[in-house]
Design goal:
50% of the residues lie in helices and 11% in strands. By secondary structure, it is α+β, with helices and mostly antiparallel strands. The radius of gyration is 22 Å and the shape is globular. It starts with 6 loop residues before the first helix and ends with a strand.
Length: 429
């Protein structure tokens, strides 16, 4: 479903002419970041990409859009639902699910489960020993199994398989980049719905079966509520927060391997830090300051969700620009993270040290690897912990080989940013 911007707005917001079927779409697909950067230089920090798409590159305006999510805007409408916006009731129910899940992801709650997360990561990394693999193929399953200890007290291959199938279906739909009217039969929609239903069918028996050792997990947290949690809210907290984390975490995990190989001096420093550190799983940010900074820098240079957006459900003012309801407001963490205007030192340089200074290295709102606002990622601290623990295990236990680093390119996908043509091998030290 396409929305039309008013004539007044089209005149007020500059941008390339001709609509999405014009030549600029070809230019965008050939070089997404280069095209958006060129538009920003030509038209300013708010420009029109299409009749119903506006791009924002000013961190203050992006922060404002994110902060007012659920009031002025909602996350981009699902194309398989015909581009329909969620109803206020659907938004409220999803926020209830997020609120239910939030305590499990707080940094104070993680020490009890991080040792199990670390063990899951180590097991999966050890299983890769001696084989050549593409990180962008291996990452999704590794991240599901690393996250699962926060959800369940024991392993569940059935849930891993169900979640991976659902994620794969959703990713395939995103790659197809089509909007399917809600009334039209669709194999994509059917595949996504069937995969999501499989996740529900796998989780439902777990919710109805109390586990004595589940107290520190999402399952135990849901079962311990004083009143029975409605099934859709429990399912949102239990299953679909896990699904939402896979893309971001998996893509970031790939880039951890890339930057360890590309910067052996950083890998050496991580190894030295890890061999003398204590309390790594209790408080990895404090125990591993350089490793934590390394993970932050990887997320800065290669933010996994490189392009995000909100759909305006009311008229929105972005500085001097008037954006009518129905417009997609897009922003790119990648552009923000590489814009020299917002960083105190060269943003194109790999430098974990920038995060070790007491002063913030960027303008407020210019670092958004996990978005922000009421729909920002719940697992920010957990995500950084998993990346740091991965770096520690590889540098202390493995020899990492990544040949032909100079030929590895960046794939700017519709949902995630991943390395292309990358092969890696781990061997025990």
């Amino acid at each position: 479903m396409a929305f039309q911007v008013s004539q007044r707005s089209k005149e007020a917001i500059p941008g390339p002419r001709g609509g999405i079927l014009a030549r600029h779409l070809t230019a965008y697909e050939a070089d997404p970041v280069g095209f958006l950067e060129d538009c920003r230089r030509r038209y300013g920090d708010v420009f029109r990409f299409d009749t119903d798409v506006v791009v924002v590159t000013d961190p203050d305006l992006v922060t404002e859009v994110l902060a007012r999510t659920n009031r002025d805007s909602v996350p981009n409408a699902n194309p398989l639902h015909g581009g329909r916006f969620p109803t206020p009731e659907q938004t409220r129910r999803w926020m209830d699910a997020r609120q239910l899940a939030a305590p499990i992801f707080r940094s104070a709650s993680l020490p009890s489960r991080l040792p199990v997360v670390q063990a899951a990561l180590a097991s999966d990394l050890d299983a890769l020993d001696g084989t050549w693999f593409d990180p962008s193929d291996a990452c999704w399953a590794i991240c599901v199994r690393a996250l699962l200890p926060l959800y369940l007290p024991s392993e569940s291959p059935a849930l891993v398989d169900a979640v991976l199938a659902s994620f794969d279906a959703a990713r395939g739909a995103a790659e197809a980049a089509v909007r399917v009217p809600s009334w039209m039969p669709s194999r994509l929609r059917r595949r996504v719905r069937n995969a999501d239903q499989h996740v529900r069918d796998t989780i439902t028996p777990m919710l109805g079966c109390p586990h004595a050792d589940a107290s520190a997990t999402m399952l135990g947290h849901i079962q311990a509520q004083p009143e029975t949690v409605p099934s859709d809210i429990a399912m949102g907290a239990m299953g679909f927060t896990l699904l939402g984390a896979i893309g971001t975490m998996g893509a970031a995990w790939c880039w951890i391997l890339y930057y360890l190989a590309a910067h052996p001096e950083a890998a050496d420093r991580i190894r030295e830090e890890a061999t003398t550190a204590t309390g790594i799983t209790k408080d990895p940010a404090r125990a591993l300051p350089y490793t934590w900074a390394f993970a932050q820098e990887v997320l800065r240079l290669r933010p996994p969700a490189w392009l995000l957006g909100r759909d305006a459900i009311t008229d929105v003012n972005l500085g001097d620009a008037e954006v009518p309801a129905g417009t997609a407001i897009m922003f790119s963490p990648y552009l923000l993270h590489h814009d020299e205007r917002w960083w105190t030192t060269d943003p194109h340089k790999f430098s974990p040290e920038r995060w070790l200074d007491t002063a913030r290295p960027h303008t407020p709102g210019a670092y958004l690897p996990f978005a922000s606002g009421p729909r920002g990622c719940l697992g920010t601290h957990l995500g950084l912990a998993i990346l740091a623990l991965t770096a520690v295990h590889i540098t202390t236990q493995k020899r990492l080989d990544v040949p032909n680093l100079e030929t590895i390119t960046t794939y700017f996908g519709p949902s995630t940013l991943t390395p292309a043509t990358m092969k890696a091998r781990l061997t025990p030290k």
